[in-house]
Amino acid sequence: MALLIFGTVQAQEWELDTNALREWLVAADEWAQENLNEDLLQALPQVDRERVEQFLRNLQQQLQGEYVLDVALLKDAANGLLPLLQLHEETQPYAAWLKSRLDYFDVAEELRRAAPPPKHIPDQPPRPLPNPPPEAGRRVWQKTVAPRPMPKGAEALVKQLKPVFISEQVPPELVWLAEVESSFDPRARSPVGAAGLFQIMPATAKRFGLRRWPWDQRYQAQPSAQAAARYLRILHRQFGDWRLAVAAYNAGEGRVQRLLDKHQTRSFDRIAPHLPAETQMYVPKVEATLLRREGVELAKLRAPAR
Question: In 10 A of CB 293, how many CB atoms?
């Protein structure tokens, strides 16, 4: 049915192409059928189940689209659903996942307020506001993250897991990816199946030898950190740039490589407007987190000496 919470996202505040909208709705239905975890939905009463399912469809559509500013339109729905997910033991891992992403909606809203109004062209519908440049996103994320206290349990986990990253020849500061991915809550689980401190997908777990039965090693700190570090090392070797490596960790190396090839560049900033909205916010959030926790810049990280 693909009913959207905000009436097709308030029609995006401009006139959408009908065929494109139909494709988006079909894609949302297909995504929900293939990816929404039944454990999440079955744990809820029917009326709440439908509400959560609608929200997750809309959230997935916005995060995987290219338009960052529309993510702000989901802020009230996200804040309203979080207590519902926290109420049931079975859905608390999904609440942990959503809680670590509430700041996406705040940042998108601030970027939306700061965006210059689109140029009016007579006899034409209003144009969408342009995506903010990467530097604007970095400024807002730095302001957002700067006053933030360290997440509960982070200090002990960082001390424990930095040697794991060093052993994989990956900058130990990247252990703070766990703050961005899960706020250092090892219970966190996304609706599409990513799990643990570093939100590792099932296919990635298999690729790096993590067991998922009889217990799921993605929820264990050290094995999941080792898999995340190995993946980051491979991505950095492929792209030669930490911003691109982190973007690929979130969006997939295939998508990042295709965009680099298409735009004939090796720069994250050049391809950023064409990445999923989630990735456009994820990379500067990682940058801001590293500045806040370690006082280092993502782009200038160096692998530890052997």
Answer: 17
Helices (H), ranges, the chain: 7-11, 18-35, 38-42, 46-64, 75-87, 92-99, 102-114, 134-145, 154-167, 177-182, 202-207, 221-239, 242-251, 253-263, 268-271, 277-294
CATH top class, domain 134-300:
mainly alpha
Could you report the per-residue pLDDT of 8-39, keeping only the tens digit for each? 333 333 333 344 334 444 444 555 555 556 66
141-200 pLDDT per residue, tens: 999 999 999 999 999 999 999 999 999 999 999 999 999 999 999 999 998 889 999 999
For the entire predicted model, the pTM comes to: 0.83
Looking from the CA of 251 toward its CB, the CA atoms found within 13 Å total: 29
Q: Which two tokens stand for residue 135?
A: 């530097």
In angstroms, what CA-CA distances link 137 with 27, 106, 165, 241?
Answer: 28, 12, 27, 19
**Residue ranges, CATH 1.10.530.10, the chain:** 134-300
